[in-house]
Amino acid sequence: MSSISSIGSGMSISGAYITPSNQLSEATKAKLEALGIDPASVTSEAEAQSLIAQVESMSKTDKARPQSGSSDMALLTKAKELAEDVGAKISERDNLDDICKKISEKIEQLAQQYASDPVAMNKLEDYQRELSSIDSRYSSKIDTQDSIFAAMNMISASNKYALGLQ
Q1: How many other CB atoms are found less than 10 A from the CB of residue 25?
Q2: Which residues of the chain are modeled with pLDDT < 70?
């Protein structure tokens, strides 16, 4: 026959207090409210702490990831600056494709005009390289978006097939 000599729970509570499951500490309530979460939607302190950790980690991830809109604006800004440098006339309504076409046309026009000036031709080559860089970055972005949309369409079709909707 065997006997149990001691039982230990492995838990200790020292200098802390336990809140009932439906009550949250003031600090937790404040954190939830600061993150835009209604404290009444959370049932326990543990759930609240888990939710806070998730939201904070998502926030850190979002800050580390470059935003698409900001890269679009950066490309547009670079293109507008280049257009100004070469003297291409653009409007506020022009999109990146339009601006790049106008810059290219202006560079071609200037190349014909300054064909005998090697200094001007070098500057025009620099402008052309910058335009090519902007254009390739934009094309790469569009290709990536197209790939993402194609993948989403494939997933959608697969889901419809799996659900018997197609």
Answers
A1: 13
A2: 1-22, 59-70
User: CB under 8 Å to 71, separation ≥6 — which residues?
Assistant: 141
Residue (of 97, 96, 87) closest to 123 by Cα position: 87
pLDDT given for residue 7 in this prediction? 46
Which of 105, 59, 60, 113 has the alpha carbon at shortest distance from 82? Answer: 105
The domain limits of the chain are 26-64, 72-162
- Determine the Cα–Cα distance for residues 12 and 22; give it in Å rounded to an integer: 22
Per-residue HEC secondary structure of 110-127 comes to HHHHCCCCHHHHHHHHHH
pLDDT score, position 126:
94
Instruction: Yes or no: say if 110 and 120 are a contact pair by the CB < 8 Å rule.
Output: yes
CA dihedral 124, 125, 126, 132 (to 10 degrees): 110
The amino acid occupying position 76 is L
Q: In the prediction, which pLDDT does 21 show?
A: 42
